Every structure is written in C-alpha cells, then in structure tokens.
Amino acid sequence: MSKEFWFVVGSQDLYGEDVLKTVAERSAEMASWLSEKLPYPLIYKVTAMSSNQITSVMKEANFDDNCLGVITWCHTFSPSKMWLNGLELLQKPWCHFATQYNLEIPNEEIDMDFMNLNQAAHGDREHGFIGARLRKARKVVAGYWKDEKVIARLAEFQKVAAGVDFSKHMKVMRFGDNMRDVAVTEGDKVEVQKKLGWEVNTWAVGDLVKEMNAVTDEEVEALFNEYKANYDIATDNIYAIKYQAREEIAIKKMMDRNGCKAFSNTFQDLYGMEQLPGLASQHLMAQGYGYGGEGDWKVSAMTAILKAMGENGNGASGFMEDYTYHLVEGHEYSLGAHMLEVCPSLAADKPRIETHHLGIGMNEKDPARLVFEGKAGKGIVASLIDMGGRLRLIVQDIEAVKPIMPMPNLPVARVMWRALPNLTDGVECWITAGGAHHTVLSYDVTPEMMRDWAKFMDIEFVHIDKDTTVEKLEDELFIKDIAWKLR
Ligand code: MN
Question: What CATH number has the domain spanning 4-168?
C-alpha cells in the first residue's frame, strides 16, 4: 500500500445542499489535481460538518499506517468547536492549508451567494484560532492552490511528515559502544524512543563477524561488480574491496533482519574484523541507511531520517564531521570529512575506490574507501544533542564550494563549505549552542523542513543563519532553556 495524505475540508450545514455539493466536488478536484504535483497522493476524505464526523476521521487517520498526515482547509465558514475534539486526538502531522478555489474576485459574478460559498478568508481564521488555542503543532501554508511556490511548500510538508513517520519506525543497530570518553555522542535512549520513536539497541561485533563468515563468494562477487559499475577502481588491492563487500552484505543482512535503518560502530571495537567498514558504510548510506562513527547513534538515525526526507525518499544527505579550517581572510572555509565514511550522495563526480593505511583503531589491513569531492551548493548541517532532560536540534545554513585546493595526499572524501553568517561567527554560534563535531550535511533538506520536523517531534530547534549573532543566540538559548524546563 502506498503512503498518502488526507484532505479534510471544513464546512457546515447552514448554506444548504447545493453549497455542500459544490464544496465536495471542488475539494475532490483540488485533491486529485494536487496529487499529480506532490510527492505523495492527497486523498479527499470528507466535507466535515460535525464534531462526531471530525473526531471519527482524525481517529481513522491515527489508526491508518498509510496516512502520513492530514491537510485541512475551510472552504466555507466551519465553526471550530466542532474541530476541537478531533484535532486534540490527531497524532499525525497536520497542515492547515489556507487557500481558496478561485484565483480572482469575479467582478460581475460576485454576490452574497458567492461570498458564502467562497469564504476561506473567513473560515480559515476561525480554523487557525483553534490550532493556536490547542497549542497544536501544525504547518500553516497560505496561497492559491495552483501556485508553484505553494505546491512546493505543500510538498515540503509531505516530506517532513514522511520524515516523522520514518523517525517513528526508526531502529538503530549499534555495534560496540560509543567511543571512550566522548560526551556529545551520548544521549538518553529512553528519551529518544519516547520523543522520536527510535529503538536503539546493541548487537555484538562477534555476531557481525559470524555473519561475515557466512557470506558466500558469489554474493561478494555480485556486490563487487556493482561497485565496479558505480565507481572507478583506483587500487590494485582487490582483496580489500571484496573484504568491504563482505562487511556490507553482513551488516545489511543483520539490519534488514531486525528492521534497522541505521547503524553505528567504533574503531575501538572491531574484534575479528580486518578493516573498519569504509566503502561498506558509504555504499550502505547510498542506499538510504544511516551511519554514525564512534558509536554516534544519534547522528546515524538523523542521517537516515534526512535521507528519507530528501528527493525521492533518498536524498543528498550524509554523515559529516568538521575537521579543519582555512582561516585566510576573505577565503574562510570549513573542511569536512571522516576517517572513511562520507556518503557518495554528496559527491560532485564519480567516486574512486582507493585503499590506504588507517593508523587509528584496530585495522589490521588497509581499508578500501570512496574518495571524492563534495558538490557545490546551498545546504545545511544538522546536529541533535541531548541537553539533559530534553533534545536540541541545531541547524546551520551553509554554502558548499568546490574545494579550493586538490589536497592530493588526503586519502578520504572531502566537502568544503562556508558556514553562515560567516566562518568565525558561525563557529562561535555553533559552539555556543553546543552543536557536535558530527553532523548530517544535506543539500536538499531545507532549514524550514528541519524546523517543522522538530516542531512535530516536540523538541527544541535552534537555527543559525545569515542573520544570527552570538548576542541574539545567547538570549534565545537562555529564554528557551527556561521555557523548556517549564513544559
Ligand atoms: Mn567522527
């Protein structure tokens, strides 16, 4: 069954049968037209006219696994006390679409009948009040339903709601614990399950090794051929590549068997493995799985969620780490990479498979990895941290560039960017907010989408953009800290 959204349209019985018939016809027409333009179909469900009817459709929406969210609109005036009970029960993401059927006010045609039928400007205000009065998380989108910009915003709402659904079904497979002594990668696993729906559990590295030993040579050969088709092979060490294939197949089998969409491991715990999974993790991310290094299960789950919220349900988003800066005035950039594991969805060109020595950790043999440059373009970096008692999602706007130097001896994939408002103020803001060195870097999930996702998940959201200053941010964090403690 395909995932879908429901269109619930408000009206009432004051205006007679003809008006209701027109409302129903137009609503069905709008839903079907919008379904062609949106990432997920919009199904017209009902012209709602009573409290019982609205309560019933909202309960149905909660129960139906294929319904990712509800979009409401008031074609006529729709008294909101009849929405109160249903909206209070609604557990799926809600978008209030303040639109109207007609683009123009028809000069000759307009009379009181027209006014009563087409009074969204009136009805949507009543509808807006009840959302505000209930303190209910919602996305408000206003504008003409055939406007491309409006459709794009509805599409973003749908992707966010898909991200909410994906989060609520998230299971993370941890191999080993977090890297010793690291604080920011830690977190309250019970809290994330309660708030975000994530089931975060651990599996033994020994079980993975056993699974790797059971992988057949034919399976390894098939995946090696897939690597050859997708990437340029720039090493003679075919053994290392095939070893990564064996690791990938085993990790994927264990994740799929347990319904996991993300995993973490640590270079400090690779007992029985010859190489840290590099190429293996990169190719798994390319397929939509989340990954976090050093046991960072939070960034792993977030990677998978941002991917799911991106283009076609597997967008250009990947696990990233801030490594080092270029501080030359007027040319300030961050250089991001990881020991091995950078997702090829971020690549500007076809990645190369290389093998190099990896000094850190328990690697007996040189691990194979994909090496490439990141794309240029606007994006974000996102970091989820545990503040003790609540979760904070920090998002910073970035402008990625083609790396300004080739760095021929750097043996890993690299992405270079300029953080907003500028490198040093941006770093000061990020550090002030407590953002991690691990992030999810995304080219196709927008800050507004992340803000809405945080809103539906009921967690704190901090956005660092072109207008952020440390002074304003410190005040914002101070006020939010008090507000969140009061909730
Ligand atoms: Mn790391």
Answer: 3.40.50.10940
